[in-house]
Design brief:
Nitroreductase-like; Nitroreductase; flavoprotein; binds flavin mononucleotide; NADP; about 45% helix
Amino acid sequence: MTATIELMRQHRSIRKFASKAIAPEQLSAIMAAAQSASSSSFLQASSVIRITDQALRQQVMALCGNQAYVGSAAEFWVFCADFHRHLQWVPEARTGFAEQLLIGAIDTALMGQNAITAAESLGLGGVFIGAVRNQPHELSRLLGLPQGVIPLFGLCLGYPAQDPEPKPRLPADMMFMENGYQPHHDEARMAEYDAQVRHYYQTRSGGNKDTTWTGQIADTLAREARPFMLNFLHEQGFCLK
Ligand SMILES: Cc1cc2nc3c(=O)[nH]c(=O)nc-3n(C[C@H](O)[C@H](O)[C@H](O)COP(=O)(O)O)c2cc1C
């Protein structure tokens, strides 16, 4: 095992932060690590907006379901897929393809993961915030996002004021397959994992709840998933063809 793998295996989202700023050289290092992520066709189809204005941060927090840590983390960054830049430098560029939504989302997610891993290596912690997509029209107006730019996720970063246990993941052989798709129907294994997740939620330091993995999935996937998203994507010039 390497120190990098050890660090990655210790990942857990942090939602309580000390009120201590992150030093500028650390911020620059995290940004450089994020920018070093691979990029599909080297399009570098991402922009990251750092919210440093406190009044603006409060407005962004309100649009993110009022999740307190969006307001209290030392840093809050909004990760966006960005094809506006390409159109600016190459106006004849052809955009709007569904494939480019995937490219923008993948490039940006890789940057985000690099950012949080770099931060964790510096003793910081963080949590991604998908709730930036709760009210995407309003957030886009607030941040002045032009055509070709969509907010994908936020990232809270700061010094941890909690030390939660890592959350148990699915058995590896349910997610890693060989030479083809292998559906998993082992109910006993799933019951075992459900019990492990229930135990995690009941004993974790950060507040307990009584649920299993399949229970949580049933709840989450019973709800509509931001049904306004397709319209928003079209309005911003994504997924038109
Ligand atoms: C794209 C993305 C969006 C997320 N959005 C939120 C969010 O809005 N609020 C939150 O508290 N956690 C959010 N999370 C954190 C997940 O809940 C968390 O990663 C997951 O439960 C696994 O826990 P762990 O990160 O502690 O291992 C998000 C994670 C990802 C990858």
